[in-house]
Amino acid sequence: MKSLKRFLGLALMMLMAAVCFAAVGSAAATAATYKETVVFSFDSTSGWWGDVTPTLITTGQKEGTGYFSTSGKIMCGNLAGTIDLSDAQALKLWVYISDASKLVQTGPQLFLDVTHKQNEPIHSTFWTKSGLVTGWNELIFHMSESASTTETKLSEIKFIHVRIDTTAAVTFGLDSLRKLVPIQPTVTQLDTFETLTNHWGTGTLQLVSTGAPQGTSYVKVVTPDANNAYVIAGSWTAVDLRNYAADGIVKIKVYVDNAANLLTGANQGVLELKDNASGMIVWNNLSTQLVTGWNQLTLKISQAASNNANLASIASFRFFQYTNASGTFFGL
Predict the structure, then answer these.
(1) Which ranges in the chain belong to alpha helices (H)?
(2) For the residues 314-330, what does the mean pLDDT come to?
(3) What's 23's DSSP letter?
């Protein structure tokens, strides 16, 4: 089984409203977060057959202790008990092809069929795939793209049938059938920005109760320091972000009243998340992404400019931006 992907959403709305952490979806293949579960490991050929009986190979597998291999075109058999696919968004399957040039080059090259009744196509859900390459292919079969009959009982799947279409003999292998189930987002709110308590910055911060993009208020800074730098900072009870180290996403909503006044460069538009000591996660050069009005930035922890923070105790943030003139203001 693969590990779960964890995502962090930090809605810091600069001149803003709520700071929160969330398990959130990514775009594309990252458009959602999934739990990935092996439903058949291909570690034993018991209960499997084909036009040529499949062999268990114990070296070169993608996962587990082995994979199935055959010189034929068909492998089918029993899954490990009854499998519930009613909650699945997709299936994943490793497929090995020794020479993809010997697959048909027009039309489907592979057929996958799952069913709760053996040898009865009326009860099946199936997919086709093309574009396979020589070697291992990790194929994704989306449930929304399947062809299913009204007789299919996805909560009671017991059998699988895989076939390839060839023009000459090849070695054909299978490993690790997995289902992907969406994980619902969970949100832990850190800061509502409904008060000036535990917030500070250059000059006197203001709490604005109109025009907030979230909640009822946002925090605004209108006075720069002597170098025309605007700063907003805040703190909260320390949170543990270690589970988000690899896939964490920080979302920031920032308001700028006049983006033409922003300076650009590596140290312009900087967000810092700090631990209880001196460590921090730093993203910089954010000013190039800001326009006049509200902006939502999406930043990956793994792509921060620097990160020496103790992720077990993140307790504060600071945002700062230099400008070429006073009169600009920012909000979170």
Answers:
(1) none
(2) 78
(3) -
